[in-house]
């Protein structure tokens, strides 16, 4: 099938590449010509395990190509997938200007009658109807399009795996011809397909992300209580997760959710509800809990150390989660800003996202060449992302390298058993603090 994908961000690039991999002819379009040039050379602009290999494989098979020309992308396309960004406006609502622009351009250049315009971008409920109007407003005589919503559920860092091993594909369309053609297109993924109305498909996306965010804020609040009650959140989550109605996933307590999806989509859903005079109390609390959780480690440091002003801190991990270079809404940035505000001198390290942080924070922090350089001689160490290369470190080595071994682990990377065998103070999330090293408060 001839497919075009508009927008080569995370979703667009992974979708286009995977559709080419299952045998379709895919043309991906982006208005960023630098990106297109890079992609045509087989270089991925994002860090995503396995993506560059698939990209190069399909470029060489000539089943995948990249362009900046709407004419080239729309001319032969039977299916056009919109995957442009929908960033947040200042009030939390979704900015649809890129979607509108793409829809109008598609309308102007589409030539095949019965082309299906599929939206993968996360858009407020009701937007697909607007997309139909924006496309139709520009169509040539005798050309008609069908509209469908196909929300994306892949996760950054495991996007390729998720595309081929998803739990479900949701197809929302009011047109049975579009539904069966899209089902045919997606069949090789061998993932169960749920057919719904357009509005329900749009709503499934927001509800799924909001529910997962709720699960995370819920377990983080339980963790906060565990700390006060002497319980261990990991055991609590395990015991809860064994109940199949609850499930084990997304019950890892930590320093909150970040990234380009949960923060944006929860805010947008609250905003959408507000527009309909419905106050979404539950989701507002989820967002509030998350904001507090992101800077919780700094509060720990202020509580347990006599004074943090003038001290030094290392930060391990900057991306919002491992296996990605994405730092959008990352807890690390909130922690760094809070530490800088408190007068702490900060050294950071991340295996892949350091350059992005440099663009954001400039020389307000120092950049370490490896994790050891970020640990050495520090008075505090904050672990913000659970990269595998941090989890294999020995706590005893960390303790030896630091000037005063105060470790604040926001992702529970180490066992309490190991921490107890060291000379450090080890503070983690929802587990009893291990205090082997005399705290400065105790010393006075
Ligand atoms: C999320 C959803 O999981 C995808 O299904 C969805 O397609 C995507 O948003 C999207 O809307 O595009 P993603 O943001 O890539 O995917 O990452 P997740 O793996 O869901 O993690 C989000 C955040 O939650 C991370 O900061 C992670 O550290 C945090 N998290 C996750 C926890 O704190 N605890 C957990 O148990 C799980």
Account of the protein in words:
The longest helix is centred in the middle third of the chain and has 32 residues, at 198-229. The chain is built from 20 helices and 15 strands. Helix content is 44%, strand content 14%. The strands form 3 sheets. A 7-stranded mixed beta sheet has the order 11-10-9-12-13-14-15. A 6-stranded parallel beta sheet has the order 3-2-1-4-5-6, with helices on both faces. The chain has 444 residues and is an alpha/beta fold. It folds into 3 domains: 2-196, Rossmann fold (3-Layer(aba) Sandwich), CATH 3.40.50; 205-292, N-(1-d-carboxylethyl)-l-norvaline Dehydrogenase, domain 2; 295-443, Rossmann fold, CATH 3.40.50.720. Bound molecules: uridine-5'-diphosphate-glucuronic acid. Uridine-5'-diphosphate-glucuronic acid binds at residues 122, 152-156, 209, 212, 216, 250-252, 254, 257-259, 261-262, 320-321. NAD(+) binds at residues 30, 35, 86, 122, 156, 264, 328.
Task: Give a quick summary of the entry.
The protein has helices at residues 10-21, 33-40, 51-60, 70-74, 97-109, 127-136, 159-164, 176-186, 198-229, 233-241, 262-275, 281-294, 296-304, 331-341, 354-361, 371-375, 388-391, 395-401, 416-420, 440-443, and strands at residues 2-6, 25-29, 64-67, 79-82, 115-119, 145-149, 169-172, 193-196, 312-316, 345-349, 366-367, 380-383, 406-409, 425-427, 434-435. With 444 residues, it is α/β, with parallel strands linked by helices.
